[in-house]
Amino acid sequence: MTNALFPVILCGGAGSRLWPLSRELHPKPFIRLPDGQSLLQKAFLRAAGLTGTRQVITVTNRDLVFKIEDELNEVNQDNLAISLILEPSARNTAAAIASAALMVARKDPQALLLVLAADHLIENKVAFEEAVNQAKQLAEKGRLVTFGIKPNQPETGYGYIEYQENQVIRFVEKPDLPTAIEFVASERFLWNSGMFCFKAQTVLDELDKYAPEILDAVRETISHSKISQGVTNNNDFFHCELNADDFTRVPEESFDYAVMERTENAAVVPSDIGWSDIGSWQALGAIGQTDGSGNRLDGEVIMHDVHDCYIRSDNRLVGAVGVENLVIIDTPDALLVAHKERSQEVKHLFKQLKTAGHEAHRLHRTVHRPWGTYTVLEERPDFKIKRIVVKPGATLSLQMHHHRSEHWVVVSGMAKVVNGNKEILLAANESTYIPAGQNHRLANPGMIDVVLIEVQTGQYLGEDDIVRIEDVYGRAPIETTNK
């Protein structure tokens, strides 16, 4: 009898190589592909469709939790149990896998974990399922299984695995080009995909043997963490918010280095599954159909004498004349123009923005919150205009601002507003004014989204000018985040 399968999706990343579409709080897993689904949604659907899946566990930064819930709920038509492990900071993959294994082992130490990345693309689902079935058989025998991708070209950006049948001979760090050419020609090497399969107890035993300091620190963190549990479709699920103070003491190390490169129990499944880690704009631009001139287009684009370009715009019309081999990515607050062959170097722009403290490395103009979204439409030193969307049944915190006043104009839906000691209902084309220092709250009691325009005025409009008094989402009473 095959043990229960618990896919574990690792969802994070800084978003540096696919800027400006990806940001720190909108990393690569949330990028939508031409078919409208995000990489995270595709990873979830792959995992949910596997035989034996009881629930899907996502390990992520807690700043992303509400966005992840929205993404998964959009595609979780079968109401599969979804569990979350929320990290207060990034500690690399060894800590993430240890936390998932410890949580699963509380229920079933012999259950199988299938560790997947949220930002990989796998185009051959049938071959993927066959590879997973092979991995499960090896994992049932107590092996730590990794998935090796059959290389179709020399690549210096991936680690390699030397193998014979299912036996790992050695792991090799990212090689130089002559070595990569030699590896591919030998047919004895696979790309290291960073996906794994093993029993919960097996990986805990190996962590205890090769990285006990990581396992002990994660176990201690979980013992002081906030854990809630429930049941969906007769399957248990849990939400575990890892304790921030304890988690800072967890050593930061990759699972490959901490365990896989040291264990004598490693196995590999050679896989030809249409895999890509979408590591650059050139890789993302290779997805989908080209026109007669080799261009891939996403959005409204007009061209004259343009060849072999990837052009993407989510909002505006983009025009291009007489160019070739370019990546052109247009977002509401940033435009990228790069040569295809140098698209990996976009990370240097991201680093410059982060060093300068520019918000464009961290956020888009549209920001997700537990209650909905807000979009900055225009901002000047003495005013800011936002479009706010509140989901049905959602409520913002009761709050006040020291330095700014706000004007709210409802565009659609019915808003319930607390303004000082008054509680009022506002329909479309109705408004209210909230002076600085006055307690206020916005809620949506209806069945459709509430959309309103907010105009902030004052001498200081920073997002840290907020005192949160009450909050239904359990956030701190006083916090330096918006709404």
Automatic annotation (TrEMBL):
Residues 357-471 form the Mannose-6-phosphate isomerase type II C-terminal domain. GO terms for biological process: GDP-mannose biosynthetic process; polysaccharide biosynthetic process. SUPFAM superfamilies: Nucleotide-diphospho-sugar transferases, RmlC-like cupins. The keyword Protein biosynthesis does not apply. It comes from the Bacteria. Coiled coil: none annotated. Belongs to the mannose-6-phosphate isomerase type 2 family. This is mannose-1-phosphate guanylyltransferase. It comes from Halothiobacillus diazotrophicus.
